[in-house]
Amino acid sequence: MREMKMKTPVQMTDDLARFIKETREDTAYPHESLYVDLLEQWKILSRYQLEYADKESKRLYNAYWNSMARWYEVFNNERNHLLDPTAVPSEDLMDFYAGLIEDLMDHVLDLVPPSPHSTIIKLTDFRVLLSNELQKITQLDLGIQGPIDFAMIMDYWKMLGESLDRESIK
Q: 113 and 169 in contact (C-beta within 8 Å)?
């Protein structure tokens, strides 16, 4: 396996946008394509200005982008096969995968520190931005995903959860 130099959030975002355009994945409606939904998330989160962030926001930002860099490596290795037609396994197996994804999703959402209710929330607070973006991606329609998409969605939530766990964010 070739060594891949770590890409910046902007480079990953640009590459994902190129993939979406080249594969015509951009014709999907909102919440039908992991890649389109993730591109929207990355566009917003990659514009975050770290120089104005507090310590907790920096830790959360780094944990998020470290996990996305790991996900991007999987994506980059599999990109030529992601949209290949693949037979859908049994309905029971797809329901099982959807349940796993929902469990991973819940775990990650629990790890994102809540915004303090008693204080004024700063616009530079990455928690708020990330929490909002994660809520959006939970709307992804799991009922229309193929087996490869399920694997990529599971990797997204699993890698994000591992990164947040490792950083002991909360």
A: yes
Measured between alpha carbons, how far is 159 from 156 in angstroms, rounded to an integer?
A: 6
CA-nearest of 34, 52, 54, 43 to 12 is 43
State the amino acid at position 11 in one-letter form: Q
Residue with tokens 């975002």: 13
Cα separations in angstroms, 121 against 124, 126, 128, 129: 8, 10, 8, 11
CA pair distance 69, 50, nearest whole angstrom: 17
- Mean pLDDT across 129-148: 89
Mean pLDDT, residues 152-161: 95
Q: Let me know if 14 is exposed, middle or buried by CB neighbors in 10 A (0-12, 13-18, 19+).
A: middle
Closest CA to 156 of 117, 103, 105, 109: 105
Tens-digit pLDDT profile for residues 9-35: 999 999 999 999 998 888 877 788 899
State both tokens at 38: 């993730």
How far, rounded to the nearest angstrom, does the alpha carbon of residue 42 sit from its chain's CA centroid? 8
**Dihedral angle of Cα 27, 83, 18, 74, to the nearest 10 degrees:** 140
Its pTM stands at: 0.85
Give the three-class secondary structure for 74: helix
